[in-house]
Design brief:
Chain A is an alpha/beta fold and 208 residues long. In chain A, 33% of the residues lie in helices and 9% in strands. The first copy, chain A, is built from 6 helices and 4 strands. Chains A and B meet through strand 2, helix 3 and helix 4 of A and strand 2, helix 3 and helix 4 of B.
Chain lengths: 208, 208
């Protein structure tokens, strides 16, 4: 979406000790396919704190109903994760001289994460414009183009822009490169493809 | 200062590939001497971006005059550094159930860093109270008790509270455990001890 708006994409992936480390591989595949200007993978250690099913020895919930998924903050919430991610993005933007920062957070289909809401993005933009040396010379804009879109709309939009979803990854608890098909992320992704009427290229673990 | 106000101190040190990595050793010494509740050292990689004399192959400025030091943002500024640090502190606070976050930033003697100003701390506090699951249950307060104090006042306050300054480290460009005596940080520290009338226990590199 950033490229379609004419931006050169300097991409940042954060490897934070997540159970689904395979997503950094997917990010590399996508960055390569899109011929981005630059792609950095930063290694950080969120396991030092723990407190999340994504970084700790807490089981990833499976086969939850829509009602269960709508209830409060899930155990897959990683404390302050998006705040940390955007802080890195801000530092990276400052070093490359960028003032537009894009993030793919989404608040609609899954509103349990506090750091995926428009208020969070607005508060971070306010912070960015005070926190940096660069903010004395220009104004940072935080873009969250997916934030209010339903998953089906996101998928249709990606198809329109030529995204190859076979390169992408969503599962929280994959086995090798294969999606589990049962975590919240898998279920929401699959429902999105179904609602969009787009064939789902995701490769799932074979179960009996 | 947090302990003197009755807080249990859960301490966080960030090793970010800084030239003066010895400061993490100093942090361990201080944490041990103060018998803090907990001390974590998180390793992060800010060298992936570079852009600072503290993390990159850029020379640390030496023997600058007060006028030179007062001019703009120095090359020792690390893009978005304190934003990243406080984001980690926020995640750590959320995991241990704390709502009071202390940081030692100081805006007076050295005002060149945008992320050492009261406006920055206020903007981060606003963000913290939107960004986290914990903010639905309580209110985060950012404390920056040193922010408006002159270095001499800080030193006097530390002496009053029983701080052993021989355990501490400020130099940006140390040789082993010894301070260079010529970087901005050394000069400001030395001037602070002199102004406070407190003997300076800092061990400097011997020069001819």
């Amino acid at each position: 979406m950033a490229q379609s708006q004419g931006f050169d994409a300097h991409c940042l992936t954060v490897a934070y000790g997540q159970r689904h480390g395979v997503e950094t591989k997917a990010a590399r595949r996508v960055a390569e396919a899109l011929k981005v200007a630059d792609h950095r993978v930063v290694n950080i250690d969120l396991r030092a704190f723990g407190g999340s099913a994504l970084t700790d020895d807490i089981a990833v919930p499976k086969d939850r109903s829509d009602a269960e998924m709508a209830e409060g903050v899930p155990v897959t919430y990683v404390p302050a994760r998006n705040t940390i991610f955007l802080s890195y993005a801000l530092g990276f933007a400052e070093v490359v001289g960028a003032y537009d920062v894009f993030t793919g957070v989404n608040a609609v289909d899954y509103s349990g994460y506090p750091d995926c809401r428009p208020e969070f993005i607005a508060a971070f933009e306010a912070l960015a414009n005070i926190a940096t040396a660069a903010s004395a010379r220009g104004r940072f804009t935080m873009h969250a183009p997916l934030i209010s879109m339903k998953k089906a709309e996101i998928i249709r939009c990606g198809v329109r822009l030529g995204v190859d979803y076979a390169l992408t990854h969503s599962c929280y608890d994959p086995v090798d490169d294969l999606a589990c098909g049962h975590c919240d992320s898998c279920r929401i992704r699959a429902a999105g493809f179904a609602a969009a009427g787009v064939p789902d290229p995701t490769r799932y673990v074979k179960t009996q």
